[in-house]
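Figure 6 in text form: structure in, sequence out.
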């Protein structure tokens, strides 16, 4: 259940509610109100509550509303926000704000897998902007499978991303791998990316949820995570006080080595049933093959994704990371055009203008 606390509740009434909740849960669960949209909300597993316990709760003066939610995730459940969430990225003051979700057009995030050097990043930033991208991606801290591979430029990469942001006017997204680096990365990035390998790094999820810059978080699906595990990971971020969460499907492990992963596109409409959070798709990591990126981008938008994240490199074959799945800025341009058309068809505009 989700309990909304009355904004007028006195501290005595709140304390009374807290002590009742502690008693009802046997003092063994964290009961911490989360402030969302100015309201204090408590998420609770009430599966062991009987009717008398529910009645006791509804009688509390501090309780404004109780939303019965049976799924293990509560705040990310669609029932909490049936109209769906939108996430605003970037600064309205800088004129580079982008909205992800709702009725907004699909958002295109594009850029290199890794920030390699100044020239590579700045030229890619300008090229992806010219090709129609809305947000620039680039990894400064890279979670590499082998310790002998390029690990990213670290803090220097963050400085370069800040420069690319100014030069291109695009907001930037970059990955953070350690809880202790969340505040530093949040100083530079407009969105914090939590990578597949860290989807269940709970201290990292909490730190991203509490980041003092209130940066949105893009949470990638774990390599072999179920949808429920993924939604519970998103719940950690929201329960820590950050409602600005974007889910990113990036493929899951399977037995076939032809593609890097299996892109689970069925999860997109399914997530739209289960959660109010916007969903974007990463066809680059999902397929591992650049020739599959365009068809899977079109399919993702047709499935209802609110955006795409694509790896783009000026010279994919010389990329220090993930060159095989990286596309050129020219290929990005054509994907942007194609996905705009698909989005129009999905919203009915194209069809209606033909009928009229
Ligand atoms: C990435 O986007 O650069 C990345 C490492 O992706 P993932 O976490 O999905 O493997
Ligand atoms: Mn990559």
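Output sequence:
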């Amino acid at each position: 259940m989700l309990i909304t606390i009355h904004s007028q509740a006195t501290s005595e009434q709140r304390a009374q509610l807290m002590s009742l909740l502690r008693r009802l849960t046997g003092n063994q669960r964290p009961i911490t109100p989360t402030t969302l949209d100015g309201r204090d909300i408590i998420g609770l597993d009430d599966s062991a509550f009987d009717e008398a316990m529910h009645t006791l709760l509804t009688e509390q003066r501090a309780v404004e509303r109780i939303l019965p939610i049976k799924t293990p995730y509560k705040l990310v459940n669609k029932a909490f926000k049936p109209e769906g969430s939108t996430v605003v990225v970037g600064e309205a003051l800088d004129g580079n704000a982008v909205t992800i979700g709702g009725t907004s057009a699909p958002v295109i995030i594009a850029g290199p897998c890794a920030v390699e050097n100044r020239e590579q990043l700045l030229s890619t930033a300008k090229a992806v902007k010219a090709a129609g991208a809305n947000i620039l991606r680039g990894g400064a801290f890279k979670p590499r499978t082998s310790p002998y591979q390029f690990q990213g430029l670290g803090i220097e990469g963050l400085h370069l991303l800040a420069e690319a942001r100014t030069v291109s006017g695009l907001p930037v997204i970059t990955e953070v791998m350690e809880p202790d680096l969340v505040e530093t990365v949040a100083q530079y990035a407009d969105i914090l990316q939590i990578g597949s390998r860290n989807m269940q790094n709970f201290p990292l999820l909490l730190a991203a949820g509490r980041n003092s810059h209130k940066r949105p978080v893009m949470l990638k699906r774990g390599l072999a995570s179920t949808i429920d595990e993924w939604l519970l990971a998103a719940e950690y971020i929201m329960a820590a006080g950050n409602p600005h969460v974007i889910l990113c499907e990036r493929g899951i492990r399977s037995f076939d080595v032809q593609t890097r992963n299996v892109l689970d596109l069925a999860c997109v409409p399914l997530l739209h049933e289960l959660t109010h959070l916007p969903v974007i798709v990463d066809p680059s990591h999902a397929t591992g093959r650049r020739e599959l990126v365009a068809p899977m981008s079109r399919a993702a938008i047709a499935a209802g994704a609110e955006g795409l994240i694509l790896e783009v490199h000026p010279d994919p074959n010389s990329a220090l990371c993930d060159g095989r799945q990286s596309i050129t800025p020219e290929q990005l341009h054509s994907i942007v055009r194609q996905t705009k058309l698909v989005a129009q068809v999905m919203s009915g505009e194209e069809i209606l203008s033909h009928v009229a």
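Caption detail: The pocket of manganese (II) ion (ligand 2) is lined by residues 113, 285, 311, 321-322 (CB under 6 Å).
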